[in-house]
Amino acid sequence: MPKVLVIEDDIDMAEAVRMPLEANGYEVVRAATGEEGLQKVKEVEPDLIILDVVMETTTAGFQVSLQLRNPQPDSEYAAYKDIPILMLTAIHDTTSLRFGPDEAYLPVDDFVEKPLTPDVLLEKVAALLEK
């Protein structure tokens, strides 16, 4: 059973992600902050991370992804740098800012827009786990 770590501060959004995943055979673990998420990556060793952008700060999700994908071999997260990251964002609704995966500045594998539909979520999760 694939393990998915959901790093999301909003309990309703976390539930909206958890329910369809668990209904489709995924084990789901939640962290409510970026810092807690980084700790849980080490504890749980997930197969996939679903990461919210805006949590305790407006860029918390970016900071978590940068720490997880730190290219330094002596990084404390070096063992986890290949775990796929799906970023949850509503930022396109709240700003004209547009962004996409970028190895240097935003090292994630894919994005899913809020509000999300279970079908889109499950499709993206399955595709990332197949890689």
What would a concise description of this structure say?
This protein is α/β, with parallel strands linked by helices and 131 residues long.
Molecular structure report:
This protein is of the alpha/beta class. The protein has a single domain, classed as Rossmann fold (3-Layer(aba) Sandwich), CATH 3.40.50. Helices cover 38% and strands 18% of the residues. It has 5 helices and 5 strands, in the order βαβαβαβαβα. It has helices spanning 11-23, 34-44, 60-68, 91-94, 118-130, and strands at 3-7, 27-31, 48-52, 85-89, 110-113. Strands 2-1-3-4-5 form a 5-stranded parallel beta sheet, sandwiched between helices. Strand 3 (48-52), helix 3 and strand 4 form a beta-alpha-beta unit. The longest helix is centred in the first third of the chain and has 13 residues, at 11-23. The protein starts with a strand and ends with a helix. The model is unreliable at 93-98 (pLDDT under 50).
How is this fold's topology laid out?
Blueprint (H helix, E strand, L loop, with lengths): L2 E5 L3 H13 L3 E5 L2 H11 L3 E5 L7 H9 L16 E5 L1 H4 L15 E4 L4 H13 L1
Parallel strand pairs: 1-2, 1-3, 3-4, 4-5
Helix pairs in contact: 2-3
CATH H-level superfamily: Response regulator
Q: Order of strands side by side in the largest beta sheet?
A: 2-1-3-4-5
Fraction of residues in helices?
25-40%
Q: What CATH first level would be assigned?
A: Alpha Beta
Number of domains: 1
The pLDDT mean sits at 88
Low-confidence stretches: 93-98
Write the CATH fold name: Rossmann fold
- Derived from helix and strand composition plus strand pairing, the structural class reads alpha/beta
Distance between the termini: 16 Å
Largest sheet: 5 strands, parallel
CATH architecture: 3-Layer(aba) Sandwich
Secondary-structure element pattern, one letter each: EHEHEHEHEH
User: Helix count?
Assistant: 5
Total count of strands: 5
Give the overall form.
Answer: globular
The fraction of residues assigned to DSSP E strands is 15-25%
Rg computed from alpha carbons, rounded to a whole number of angstroms: 14 Å
